[in-house]
Write a structure and sequence with these properties.
This protein is of the alpha+beta class and about 240 residues long. It has one domain: Aminopeptidase, CATH 3.40.630.30. Helix content is about 35%, strand content about 20%. Helix 2 runs antiparallel to helix 3. The chain is globular.
């Protein structure tokens, strides 16, 4: 768009360093504490190792999500598409204050959980996935990221929404989550209804509910044995959903 200048100017063509524009597009980041590596014993006895994803793992993660986009049941296609864009948004710095957690079993990528901070108070839950069946991996990843938000970052509210019936039944109904008035308050995933958990509700009810579902608590004293078993990042060859 071009408008005629309302007065004479000494320089009609302006040159700007793209790095200055990038500073505006990214915006100032919050000082978010890192997720400390953790391990957890699943209900089937396997050990799930949970840590922050690494940037060099992004291409492999995107390759898996490309496969998930083609699964046309239980909304996996739209989940795969959205998670692809979220991972790419993290890489390209087009997602505000994101966090991306992966769960590994003997190096095999088995769980995924991500979100971002709207503010220091509000944590927006984006997606949680189990890539390998059994052991309630999805519940373990959900517990890890909610624990991260409330116990480590210090958020006051947790905002979520649901794309699938199973997700709504397990978390929305299962945790008896209240919701904000719609359409006044909308989640960024498609403008859906916002279901929320406060820190008070987390402390009194939700934390124990999810922990009981998982069957074990997070152990932040990761052993050298578990760390060594998960040195490699192996993407499952098949999409088992």
């Amino acid at each position: 768009m071009k408008f005629e200048l309302p007065c004479k100017t000494s320089q009609e063509i302006l040159q700007i360093d793209a790095r200055e524009v990038e500073a505006m597009l990214q915006g100032p980041a919050l000082n978010i504490p890192k997720f400390p590596e953790a391990m957890l014993t699943l209900k089937d006895g396997r050990t799930l190792y949970i840590r922050e994803a690494k940037m060099e793992e992004v291409p492999a993660m995107l390759g898996y999500m490309e496969k998930l986009m083609k699964v046309e049941h239980d909304f996996y296609d739209i989940v795969g598409s959205r998670v692809y864009s979220e991972i790419l948004g993290w890489k390209r710095k087009r997602l505000k204050d994101p966090y991306t957690l992966v769960g590994l079993i003997d190096g095999v990528w088995s769980g995924f959980a991500n979100g971002r901070l709207m503010s220091e108070d509000i944590n927006i839950s984006l997606h949680t996935m189990a890539l390998v069946r059994g052991g309630r991996i999805g519940a373990a990843m959900y517990y890890a990221k909610a624990y991260y938000g409330f116990e480590i970052i210090g958020n006051k509210e947790w905002w979520a929404t649901y794309e699938s019936y199973n997700g709504w039944m397990r978390w929305g109904l299962g945790m008896a989550q209240p919701s904000y008035p719609w359409p006044d308050v909308q989640h960024e995933l498609g403008g859906a209804k916002v279901y929320y958990v406060t820190k008070k509700y987390w402390d009194s009810t939700v934390k124990n509910y999810v922990r009981q579902m998982v069957g074990a608590d997070l152990n932040f004293n990761v052993t050298d044995e578990v760390r060594k078993a998960n040195e490699n990042f192996i993407v499952p060859e098949e999409v088992l959903v």
